[in-house]
Target: Mitochondrial 2-oxodicarboxylate carrier
Amino acid sequence: MAGQQHDISHAKRAAFQVLAGGSAGFLEVCIMQPLDVVKTRIQIQATPAPNAAALGEVHYNGVFDCFAKMYRHEGISSYWKGIMPPILAETPKRAIKFLVFEQTKPLFQFGSPTPTPLTFSLAGLTAGTLEAIAVNPFEVVKVAQQADRQKKMLSTFAVAKGIIQQDGLGFSGLNKGITATMGRNGVFNMVYFGFYHSVKNVVPEYKESHLEFLRKVTIGFLAGTLACFVNIPFDVAKSRIQGPQPVPGQIKYRGTLSSMGIVYREEGFRALYKGLVPKIMRLGPGGAILLLVFEYSYDYLLHNYS
Model:
């Protein structure tokens, strides 16, 4: 009976992790999507040609310039281009991430009675890599939508159908850039979870609820920001692989490391950090939102439904 009770408790705990993680993902993507669109637009643009302006090509000179030009040329709704793939993906994606993270922590304690910083980092790496495999087809569709500069937006279904018809379901189609996505998500979550939980366990808690909330927000923001600095080259490679190629019909960006090498040789080291500002603007506060919504939702479910 005791074993059965333990199984039920474990199953319920896992279900609460799924619900809390899914809720956190949905809320975060709805709030932060415009910055993700801007980040993608900046990352996929190469150095402009001398006659780009004469040809009518729009070039973005930073975050706020991108916001202004998108609004002027495409309207305010363009800030939420590609929102459906993340909404469809983020709920299961975050559910998978938090579930895998919580469930794999004991595997990486290596005999230690309590989790260590290495435990949090390895569990985060595992969670990020697995979520990337699940979410990559949605990322391919999202990037295609975000890269489209036409004022009239195609539906998510129409874009996905077009990719499948033209390139199929494999590594040149709906699963294009999967290794870059795995690198991006794996590295991000390794740093993100490793930093957040390690620092949170060191910095003393506050008895006052508002100060404790600010403590967690600050650590979550720093965790998301640090993770952005570490994984941004993978993100740039992913955007180049999954986005439109410079010359239609010719595949320039294929592998993750080779794409990083091309960007470095042709555009310099700084190009590997393109989109860093909007990425931090999104995933700094977004990281704090995600962790706090998960923690408070999870605690609420544990206290009220266990």
Notes: The domain at 26-41+60-305 is CATH 1.50.40.10 (Mitochondrial carrier fold).
